[in-house]
């Protein structure tokens, strides 16, 4: 019928615009590399912030002692304690407690949090965690507890344990002393005063709790993941997070960072937090759906790469295409299902379970449509079309992620095999990578395709489960005041 033909035309057009042939991926990877160079050359030189982490020595695996980490992610945070036993014994003990950020701390919109209240709440939870620990965790007399703080949003650091929030939202200027909103992973916003030092704010909150604890390191979660990966595997040289948002960090040669004016670190290396979610390039395959998603987002014009590949957005892109099918081709009958008009109602986990539906009648697709969108009585043909849309969106995201990783490897000169012994490990973490099997497989096969057989044999993608949490504790250990 005419409706079906129209639907097919829309889907085919979308598929064409989402296409990521290998040549395009190479252009994306090269553009990523160009931006990396520009971001390293000067502050503000690129969409890629290429933030200096001040982490110039990564854990070696021989660290010893009791360390803490605080991981502030999306809507919850975790307090972590690790007991490190040195080279032989490794991680002897690890405990974590997850706490959700209570809604009463959210002000304005439900996305906004006031920094002072948030830090006080976090500090009180840390105090509770520390005071309730058992005898075995007692530190030697006179020794201060040390903590690594994982903070999942862009901070301009001035040392390992200090940093101010980077002005993010357009329309606010640095001179303004008014509060500005900074996105944590671009969906949860924290209300801070421009120029406020994150570590000193947290330290003050910890002192208000009467706790003797030093914030030894301020660590982006990608940097934490890199450190966590390196602790277990000496060949980890980069880390990528694919969760609600996305970001990457990697090890750079210190002398290849023109904007670094400090002393060259002994190791000759520096971990760079790319903030790659903000990458954009004319080579990115953007469709009208991506453009309207961006325009209507909380941070228009920002985080374009993230909006193509991360878990926050994949389901929303699908919803937008389905809505257009409903409107333009009566895809779900004569009326547009009202729930389909609700932004972000269709989450990426829903999308992945539809995509991974292996039942012969696609009954998972049917049940998701019914439960989430209130759409029943879909034909098999319709469901199949929806799986195809999932495939198009996930494939584009996964292939672009692979191109990004290839760009990093190319920047490091690890896209080709230098010696037979060369081994390159990229630590991957985040709910999207962990749970969306199809996405993960496409990412891995695309990276192998880009590397070619020889180089691919030396590159390993490793799932760094919860690297970011323990990673900050490991960085605190590697930079302990008692070393
Ligand atoms: P965060 O990025 O907020 O720190 P995670 O790394 O745990 O947290 O990632 C959570 C995100 O992963 C979710 O927002 C969602 O987008 C994605 N995700 C979780 N489970 C699945 C799933 N089964 N399929 C696809 N995506 C998933
Ligand atoms: Mg996280």
UniProtKB/TrEMBL annotation:
Chain segments annotated as transmembrane: none
CDD domains: ASKHA_NBD_HK_plant
E.C. designation(s): 2.7.1.-
Domain Hexokinase C-terminal: 238-477
Residues covered by the Hexokinase N-terminal domain: 11-231
Gene Ontology terms: cellular component: cytosol; mitochondrion
Name used for this protein in its record: Phosphotransferase
Organism: Dendrobium catenatum
